[in-house]
């Protein structure tokens, strides 16, 4: 007898004699709805759970003091001055969110062709890392490595004749990773998609004695339309020339994602990431099943904006859509999610006890 998912396929033939006793009842041995009949029953058979441990909270930084600047395309998300970022780190601690991620809005006067501010040991990111670590040494801090918040052209790397240079960029990224790690950052997260950057950064960290600094590689990062609001947030939307398709992945591909992830693991990544999130859950599943590595997904700004905007219009229940979208990452096999919903979701999870 053929068996599928633990049950004989010919079940209907073998299971029943004369049918059910209740009038009008269908002759069904198996009724999947029984396991959904009450909340306690649903809890008993629930396969995946979201907890605050699954959340990484990205924060946007801006120069100044006691400043919070709303981002129009990301309702509910602000750019924060260093002191305010410290307060949000405290909020994350209290909500038991294990890790925050930092993204700077660099003053336009500090942006140049080379993204020089990226390697300034006193840039906004490094200042914030030091300020947070001083007050809250026990929260994890992730810093992005890429040049786009710092370049006048909005690209993640150095440009020559319209071409993004790989190897020259990697050398700068190593220096960027080092200033961040020296400031006290716990996880270096290269998001630039240059080839060979994970190996180069690992070597740079090890040579500087920063052996415990982890690397979370944005291993499969796609050239996506869903990054729009993020580019508003860091101020690169207006300046970006062209697109990022010569370094970020083509959304049509998944085998290529496996090759990218495999390379980053071989080069020393401790954790890998797929980005964006919701439109790429198939990639998350394949990566997790293939490599069994700590696997993260980034629910990016456009995904946040879609849900937030629809909720603000009364078109869907924002809280339920948020929780459903986050649980979907767990179902796809992710160990955690970078999400702008992190504090709101954590508050909800904690109120549910
Ligand atoms: N390197 C970080 C990002 O590009 C974030 C994109 C987004 O949230 O849209
Ligand atoms: Mg790669």
Automatic annotation (TrEMBL):
It catalyses: 2 5-aminolevulinate = porphobilinogen + 2 H2O + H(+). Mg(2+) binds at residue 260. GO terms for biological process: heme biosynthetic process. It is an enzyme of class 4 (lyase). It holds the Pfam family ALAD. Its EC number is 4.2.1.24. Keywords: Heme biosynthesis, Lyase, Magnesium, Metal-binding, Porphyrin biosynthesis. GO terms for molecular function: porphobilinogen synthase activity; zinc ion binding. Belongs to the ALAD family. This is Delta-aminolevulinic acid dehydratase. The lineage of its organism: Bacteria, Pseudomonadati, Pseudomonadota, Alphaproteobacteria, Hyphomicrobiales.
């Amino acid at each position: 007898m053929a068996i599928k998912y633990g049950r004989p396929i010919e079940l209907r033939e073998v299971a029943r004699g004369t049918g059910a006793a209740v009038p009008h009842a269908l002759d069904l041995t198996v009724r999947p709805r029984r396991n959904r009949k009450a909340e306690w029953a649903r809890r008993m058979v629930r396969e995946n759970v979201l907890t605050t441990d699954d959340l990484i909270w990205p924060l946007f930084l801006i120069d100044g003091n006691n400043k919070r600047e709303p981002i129009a395309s990301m309702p509910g998300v602000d750019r924060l001055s260093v002191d305010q970022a410290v307060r949000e780190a405290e909020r994350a601690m209290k909500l038991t969110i294990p890790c925050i991620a930092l993204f700077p809005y660099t003053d336009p006067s500090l942006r140049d062709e080379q993204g020089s501010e990226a390697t300034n040991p006193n840039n906004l990111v490094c200042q914030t890392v030091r300020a947070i670590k001083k007050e809250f040494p026990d929260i994890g801090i992730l810093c992005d490595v890429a040049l786009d918040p710092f370049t006048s052209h909005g690209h993640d790397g150095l440009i020559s004749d319209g071409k993004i240079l790989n190897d020259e960029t990697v050398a700068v990224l190593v220096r960027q990773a080092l200033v961040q790690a020296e400031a006290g950052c716990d996880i270096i997260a290269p998001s630039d998609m240059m080839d060979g950057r994970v190996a180069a950064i690992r070597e740079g960290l090890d040579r500087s004695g920063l052996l415990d600094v982890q690397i979370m590689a944005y291993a499969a990062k796609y050239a996506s339309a869903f990054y729009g609001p993020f580019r508003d947030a860091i101020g690169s939307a207006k300046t970006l020339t062209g697109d990022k398709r010569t370094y970020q992945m083509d959304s049509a591909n998944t085998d290529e994602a496996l090759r990218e992830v495999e390379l980053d693991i071989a080069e020393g990544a401790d954790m890998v990431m797929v980005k964006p999130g919701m439109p790429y859950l198939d990639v998350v599943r394949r990566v997790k099943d293939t490599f069994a590595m700590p696997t993260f997904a980034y629910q990016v700004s456009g995904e946040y904006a879609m849900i937030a905007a629809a909720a603000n219009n009364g078109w869907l229940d924002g809280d339920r859509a948020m929780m459903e979208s986050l649980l979907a990452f767990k179902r796809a096999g992710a160990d955690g999610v970078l999400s702008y919903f992190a504090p709101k979701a954590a508050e909800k999870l904690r109120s549910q006890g």
